[in-house]
Design goal:
Layout: E1 4-6, E2 23-27, E3 32-34, H1 41-58, H2 66-74, E4 77-81, E5 86-89, H3 95-105, E6 114-116, H4 122-130, H5 144-153, E7 155-156, E8 164-166, E9 173-175, H6 177-182, H7 188-201, E10 213-215, H8 238-255, H9 268-278, H10 287-292, E11 303-305, E12 308-311, E13 314-317, H11 320-326, H12 331-336, H13 340-352, E14 355-363, E15 380-387, E16 393-400, H14 405-410, H15 415-438, E17 447-455, E18 467-476, E19 481-482, H16 496-513, E20 531-535, E21 541-546, H17 569-572, H18 581-605, H19 607-611, H20 625-638, H21 641-649
Parallel strand pairs: 1-3, 5-6, 9-10
Antiparallel strand pairs: 2-3, 2-4, 4-5, 7-8, 8-9, 11-14, 12-13, 14-15, 15-16, 16-18, 17-18, 19-20, 20-21
């Protein structure tokens, strides 16, 4: 399909290096993209209609009827141009028109440079999901700096200067007081033109029913487009023009809170309000959370990646993979087209067989601020798909094995040794999970170990280009909220804090027994993202489930009292949010002591079930899992529950007011490890 472009290219720059145009209108039936100014979609549609009528007149045909014009406009698509992206405002009633326009645009720019807006609309959600293209849904950047850049890069003009902040979803151009006040620096003719432009467009609605121009941060009862109406500004004498501008400026100023009178990226109030006005009310910012019903900690953290879609039951990969194959030198494109996604999708199709769609998102390895960030290949993904026979949306959490064939090849080992050590680590991972469950850790009910094929391209030059097997683990997605990311208002609800404290205290016991830590001798891992709270029908915490047992059995030598300071942190980090911090602390400690005595009782009652669980496994005092298990059980049996609970109590700030406090962030005594964890 060949697309006719009337006007500048969407990414073209003017002589000053600015984008030549920020909006366009696409007419899929005519295969035409209209980008000529002025920068209002309604006027672009009128411009194209005039062009068609001129052509019809030349052919001896009558002008288009009103019905034909309405049909043409109804089937057109509004586009917004970023520096290197085209954003489509979908035709929600006819998504097939949206996708037809999308395919036309792909003849002009790369598919990865085209995205969709309006993702909160259920019709858009469903249509995009069915195509396996969540990766093309527009979202705001994740960092504050990037958000600020996006705000200031959103400025557009209509016929004059770029004085408006543009909401790319609704089409409204927002005028701030500072930008309006700055118009006073223009010459009389330019000032008159801009006032007339504001007067005209502030009193017009676009086809979404939103004003073409609106005023930022105002009280609508005090100021609006009506203040500009009824005046022919370009016909006013200079003195009268300046007087009228002064009146409007003062009226605008008094209607705006003083926090919003200056466009200041360092003013938190202004930044939050402009972000809300331009993006949060634009809906597209909540893509990740709302498309998949993800928990709040995943908000704006998921990078959806290309996969593919089903057509009449047959699966075909996204055409962006063909583009990547044709441009191996394009590193950004290669990163976008993650080859491992194909293997993950194949495994899902093999298991379910009758899918409507599948979408895969990539996550940072850890959403916990306190965890060390390693430069590794350890990928973490979320898969969302729907089975026709089951009729429900299914979500799976996927994590690549930390030490696989690739990693061992990178160490210079031969292929057979790398395969064997990878298999050993898989067993070690699964044994640790079983050990955690035996010690009462409330882990996810089911984990499946799977493999995919990929071409090795690591440090080992002798093995580059070989196809290797990569292991990953797939589990159910936990729908609750991570304990360390509960919103502060939760704690104010009657009974919430005490129930949470009790559940946390119980969960802490299995965690401390299993010695979850980043490495031997380093601080324990607890209450920092893996523990997920489920609430009952009464809205109170009912259960804590652990999503991942990473770090388990890393610390198996030091006495449990050595970790006491860290297990006081769940209380200390919440003391400012709690209505009754002492009550929270006492409930936590009581539950901790009770659960520790319970697990010790289980062990002493059924000692053989624990002691022989891993007797069949390799035993090596240098750090095999069977040896670690033996050490952990011995430590459990020797621990005095009262002494350990009291050791934790001594580090709880609210229970030791007026007493010398330990250093925050206190570390365990470092002892060298013997094996990777």
């Amino acid at each position: 399909m060949q697309l006719e472009l009337i006007g500048p290219h969407p990414f073209a720059k003017d002589e000053q290096g600015r984008q030549a145009t920020r909006i366009g209108t696409l007419f899929p039936e005519h295969k035409v993209l209209w980008t000529q100014q002025p920068g209002v979609h309604a006027l672009q549609r009128l411009g194209f209609i005039e062009r068609l009528n001129v052509e019809r007149t030349g052919k001896g045909l009558p002008p288009m009827s009103t019905e034909e014009e309405e049909k043409l406009c109804g089937n057109s698509l509004d586009l917004i141009f970023e520096a290197d992206h085209i954003l489509i405002r979908p035709n929600k009633e006819r998504m097939e028109v949206t996708f037809a326009g999308d395919e036309l645009l792909q003849s002009l720019v790369s598919k990865r440079q085209i995205g969709f807006l309006s993702v909160l609309d259920p019709r858009v959600q469903e249509a995009v999901k069915l195509r396996g293209e969540c990766w093309r849904l527009s979202a705001i950047p994740k960092s504050r700096e990037a958000k600020e850049r996006m705000v200031f890069s959103s400025k557009v003009g209509i016929r004059g200067l770029p004085i408006y902040y543009y909401n790319r979803l609704t089409g409204t151009r927002w005028l701030t007081f500072q930008e309006f006040e700055n118009l006073g620096k223009l010459d009389d003719a330019s000032l008159a033109r801009h006032l007339q432009e504001i007067a005209t467009h502030a009193n017009l609605k676009n086809r979404a029913g939103r004003p073409e121009v609106d005023f930022f941060g105002i009280d609508l009862r005090q100021f609006g487009g009506r203040e500009f109406a009824g005046e022919a500004y370009e016909q006013l004498p200079p003195e009268q023009l300046r007087q009228r501008f002064g009146e409007l400026r003062e009226h605008f100023r008094t209607a705006v809170h003083e926090s919003f009178r200056k466009d200041d990226s360092h003013n938190k109030a202004w930044c939050e309000r402009i972000l809300s006005t331009l993006f949060l009310e634009g809906n597209e910012t909540q893509t990740e959370q709302l498309m998949s019903g993800l928990s709040p900690e995943f908000f704006l953290q998921v990078d959806w990646v290309p996969g593919g879609r089903f057509e009449e039951g047959e699966f075909q990969f996204d055409t962006i993979f063909d583009e990547a194959a044709s441009h191996p030198e394009d590193e950004d494109l290669q990163r976008l087209c993650d080859a491992r996604i194909k293997g993950i999708i194949f495994n899902i199709i093999r298991e379910y067989g009758d899918l409507d769609y599948v979408n895969i998102g990539c996550l940072p390895e850890s959403l916990s601020l306190g965890r060390p960030h390693r430069s590794s290949r350890r990928g973490v993904y979320i898969a969302e798909f729907r089975s026709r026979s089951e009729g429900e949306v299914i979500k799976r959490f996927i994590r690549l094995q930390k030490w696989g064939v690739w990693e061992h090849l990178d160490e210079g080992k031969d292929l057979l040794q790398s395969i064997n050590e990878s298999e050993d680590y898989t067993d070690y991972w699964l044994d640790r999970r079983l050990g955690c469950r035996q010690l009462g850790m409330n882990l996810t009910r089911r984990v499946v170990m799977r493999r995919l094929s990929e071409t090795y391209g690591g440090k080992n030059e002798r093995r580059r280009g070989e196809v290797i097997r990569t292991t990953y683990f797939e589990r159910e997605y936990l729908e609750g909220i991570a304990t360390d990311k509960l919103p502060s208002e939760k704690y104010a609800k009657a009974g919430y804090a005490v129930k949470l404290a009790t559940l946390l205290g119980r969960a802490a016991v299995s965690n401390i027994i299993a010695g979850r830590a980043f490495a031997m001798g380093t601080r324990p891992v607890f209450d920092d993202g893996d523990e997920v709270v489920y609430e009952g029908e009464d809205g109170l915490p009912a259960e804590i489930r652990v999503g991942d047992h990473s770090g388990a059995f890393a610390e198996y030598k030091l006495p449990l009292e050595a970790a006491a300071a860290h297990y006081a942190r769940p209380i200390n980090t919440r003391d400012k949010m709690l209505p009754e911090p002492r009550e929270f602390a006492e409930a936590y400690l009581a539950a901790f002591r009770e659960q520790l005595l319970h697990i010790q009782g289980d062990y002493r009652k059924r000692r053989r079930a624990f002691d022989t669980l891993f007797k069949h496994c390799k035993y090596d005092v240098r750090g095999s899992f069977a040896y670690r298990w033996e050490c952990v059980l011995r430590r459990l049996n020797q621990t005095n529950a009262e002494t350990l609970a009291e050791a934790i109590r001594k580090h709880v700030w609210v229970l030791n007011l007026g007493k010398p406090q330990p250093e925050r962030g206190e570390q365990l005594t470092t002892e060298p490890g013997t094996k990777r964890t």
